[in-house]
Structures are given as structure tokens and as C-alpha cells.
Amino acid sequence: MIQFPDINPIIVKLGPIRIHWYGVMYLIGFVAAWILATWRAKKSKGIWTSEEISDLIFYCIIGVLLGGRIGYIVFYNLSFYLMHPLAMFKVWDGGMSFHGGLIGVMIAFFIFSRKTGKGFFQISDFLAPMVPIGLGAGRIGNFINGELWGKVSTLPWAMVFPKDPSQLPRQPSELYEFILEGVVLFIILWIYSKKARPRMAISGYFLLLYGCFRFWVEFVRLPDPQLGYLAWGWLTMGQLLSIPMIIFGLIFIIRAYTKHKLVDGMNVDDMNILRSLKQKKKQKA
Description:
Elements: E1 10-14, E2 17-20, H1 21-42, H2 50-76, H3 78-83, H4 98-116, H5 120-127, H6 131-145, H7 173-192, H8 201-217, H9 237-259, H10 268-284
Antiparallel strand pairs: 1-2
Helix pairs in contact: 1-2, 1-6, 2-4, 6-7, 7-8, 8-9
């Protein structure tokens, strides 16, 4: 058994103001995604600009925060928040849903698409490789908060979480998710996206891999106590919400390689943007 690290969830107290590690982890994820997206934009030959990246990240921040919080309230604890509406705003205590955040980000992509004229999947394919950074940072925030622990275990790396009333050694499922949803997913998508891929393929692999990783970890992670298991003594809300991701991920991958093949090693919409940029340069000249 490994001793749970004694980390104060609050970094700094300044009177009534408290800075929590949980919030800082989200900030780290957003900043890292912005840096990597900006770096990739510079290599896109003008298809993406730094201004577009800044706007897109801003839209995503709003989508993640609103979608993640609303998703948690609706999917995981609606009855509690209907009785205690002010608790909806206490985000520093945790309570964010990835699946809700994903819906929020998809809405952000749609709005950004309408504003810039870029296709929805052109946006999602570009940003998907950066998302695991935020996911991994968020799981570290969960771990520091001592929440979302796993089942009782005799494994040598099992931990006793301070907030656990039973004080039994449990699997650190937050760290499993950090490794799979953060590190492994980032490495796979980053390497895969270094070359041009058929439109929808990168988004498809993100949905498929995250869905599979999350579905597996839910077997060792305890479900939220207010929900418990939904069916068969093992199905959790996290698994139920991950099933559509797996299905749509497979559909997107199949469609990408059958309907959206590359032309001269590029996606058609990227080619159209480059042609438009060249025409504008000729007109200015």
C-alpha cells in the first residue's frame, strides 16, 4: 500500500479568496492546449492563424466550464442541485462531467465554424490531439482533491484516501485515467495527427479511444454514490455515456477512410483554403 500524498487542495488563501489546485489544473490544460495549437497553426501554411486559435480556445473554455458543470448536474446529481441551487456555482468543490464538457465544446465548435467558415470536423480534427492534456490535468486535480477513488484493492499501489469513510486501501482510479486519458491518448493522437489524415479520422480516434479507456476504468472506479450501478451490478453512468462515443468514433473512422480520402496528400477543405489564400495574395500583388 502507498501512502496518499498529503497535498492541501487549496494552494493559497487571500482572505475570502482561495486558489484551488483543481482550478489551476484546468488553467494548465487550457494554456498548454493554446501553446500547442498555436505552434501547429504556424506550420499550417496559413490555414490557421494565431488569432483564430485564441478565439477557438476561448470558445472551448466557455464550452468546457458550462458544459462540464451543467453535464454533471444533469447526468449525476440533478435532484441534489434542484434542492440546493446555490451549490451549482461551487465549482471549486469539484463536480465536472467530461461528457457534458464534450457537448459544450461541440457547441463551441459549431459557433466557431459559423463564424470562420471552417468545417466542424476540420476544427475538431485540429484540436483533438490537444484535448488529452486538459483531461490529464483534470484527473490530477481529482487526485489532489482525493475524490473519484476506485474499489478496495490489495494491489501494492493501493491507497487510503483521506475522504473515504471506510479508510480502506483503494485503487487510485484517477491516476489510471490520467495515464490513459491523458498521457497515452495524447501520445497516440499527437503522433497520428502529425501526417495529414482523412477528415473525421482524428476526431473518430479520439472518441473511440477515450470511450474505451473510460469504459475500462469504470470497472475499477466506484460509481457516484448518489447513482450507484445503473444495471447488472456493474454498469455506471460513465460507461453509459461512453458507449455513444465508441459507436460514433467507429462510424467516423469508417466514413473517413471510405468517403473523405486525401487528395494529393491533403484534405479537400484545407486545399480550398490554401487556394483562396493564394488568390488573395495574387490580387494584392
